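[job 0412] stage=complex_fold ligand=adenosine-5'-diphosphate status=START
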Amino acid sequence: MAFLEVKHLSKKYAGNDFYSLKDASFTIDQGEIVGLVGKNGSGKSTLLKCIAKSQFPTQGEILFQDQNLYAEEDMLEDFGIMIDPVFFPQISVLENLQLFLKIHQKEHYSNNIKSILELVGLWDARYRKPKDFSFGMKQRTALALALITEPSFILLDEPFVGLDPIGVQHLLQILKNWAQTKKTAMLVSSHQLSELEELCQRFLFIDRGQISEATPAEQKTILIELALPIQETELAQQLANLGARSSSDQIVEIPTDILLSERNQIFQLLAQAKLIKGVLSKRDHLETLFVED
Ligand SMILES: Nc1ncnc2c1ncn2[C@@H]1O[C@H](COP(=O)(O)OP(=O)(O)O)[C@@H](O)[C@H]1O
Ligand SMILES: [Mg+2]
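[job 0412] stage=complex_fold status=DONE, emitting structure tokens
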């Protein structure tokens, strides 16, 4: 049984003539931290909002521990959600946490307030109001609210946006610490792969509402950056016959599971044609696909 299963989920907002999310299917296991990576406007928030039930999907279904998320009222009991700000700026952080627990009838988690505020570095600021906070402190207030009830599943939408590099490191540290101690599952979105790399065990990539997953085979691919696009069709054909693939006309992908002799022939052909500009890691390649425009 998957912990969370998203099946053929699509979302078209009223008035739009395009889908913001198209036939998305994936699963998340218990304790797994999954990164959701895509450019601005690719559909990250839409997906997270459908899982958080703040947007209703047009098609498809979401199962949480084998139960339809939309069938029951209280299915989000075990979720920690940081998508849109949910705190009140005019009351102190401490009062925000107390009020949040009261609204959700979870006052038995009051004992967690001190440890959570210490974890997010806001204990000393507990009597201050978020309206007077820096951006990073507001983010950490939202995170405290998402963590306070020790949820088994956490949704975080672009938690690093607006943070300086030290703030990003701090937040990563908090999330890693939380994941290690609690075995919580997380789905964390970002438009920058690099921020999520050290946190996530797996990645989902989203482009114009379409989800793809970096398969283990893709992760075991050597990527050759070409000095020139391959125009000569004969060479392109030879490379393809040997098992090389191309995702763009400037990149040749060589799977590592083809025969060594064939791999070497591919290198030779490219070298003879003086086409090799460099060898990319998968990460470099993904970054070229997912950097912001
Ligand atoms: N409430 C909405 N009404 C209409 N269109 C929306 C709404 N929210 C998002 N969209 C559109 O859906 C697409 C995906 O948006 P979004 O999920 O916010 O992407 P991301 O979070 O990756 O930046 C965009 O084209 C956006 O304009
Ligand atoms: Mg968004």
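Residues 44-45, 157-158 surround magnesium ion (ligand 2) (CB under 6 Å).
[job 0412] exit 0
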